[in-house]
Write a structure and sequence with these properties.
Largest sheet: 5 strands, mixed
Strand content: 15-25%
Structural class: alpha/beta
Oligomer: single chain
Number of helices: 5
Number of strands: 5
Length: 162
């Protein structure tokens, strides 16, 4: 399985806080990455490197992101993780449609008026687990967690209980 991951930031109230969202395109498996120090390029790069580095090589193939300044250090991320990073064309959210849809689902849990810095990592893990255990019509009513297990991918983020 070739993993094609899409990523983006969800920005909190007053653009003072953010969370990185990563979604594997085929399974819709979601990982939420806390950015407690802010969403400057160096902080985003550090956070993405820490998330992707321990994943199996099959889950570190590509990452498609928008044109945001937070990815100025994309070369450092590529070098540290082995990812190939691609950028969607400006004003073309359909090129990262899976991530855009997932971000819409996440707004049910994380409204735009929320200070995202107030969510500890374990709370973000709980939200991601709930999404990963939600059946999806596009997955023939299977869940992202079921599909990840089906591929026998040893990821620590896969949990049996939401």
């Amino acid at each position: 399985m070739v993993s094609l991951t899409e990523g983006d930031l969800i920005i909190g109230a007053g653009q003072r806080s953010a969370i990185a969202t990563l979604v594997e395109r085929k399974t819709r498996y979601t990982i939420l990455v806390p950015l407690p120090g802010g969403h400057a390029a160096a902080l985003v790069a550090d956070a993405l490197i820490s998330v992707f580095t321990p994943l199996p090589a099959g889950l570190r193939r590509t990452l498609t992101w928008d044109q945001g300044n937070e990815m100025f250090q994309h070369a450092r991320i590529e070098h540290a993780t082995g990812l190939s990073i691609y950028f969607a064309d400006p004003h073309s959210p359909w090129q990262r449609g899976t991530n855009e849809n997932t971000n819409g689902l996440l707004r049910q849990y994380l409204p735009k008026s929320t200070d995202l810095g107030s969510y500890p990592g374990h709370e973000l893990d709980r939200i991601a687990a709930e999404l990963n255990h939600r059946p999806r019509l596009c997955l023939a009513d299977r869940t992202p967690a079921q599909l990840m297990r089906r591929w026998h991918l040893p990821i620590m983020q896969i949990r049996d209980d939401p």
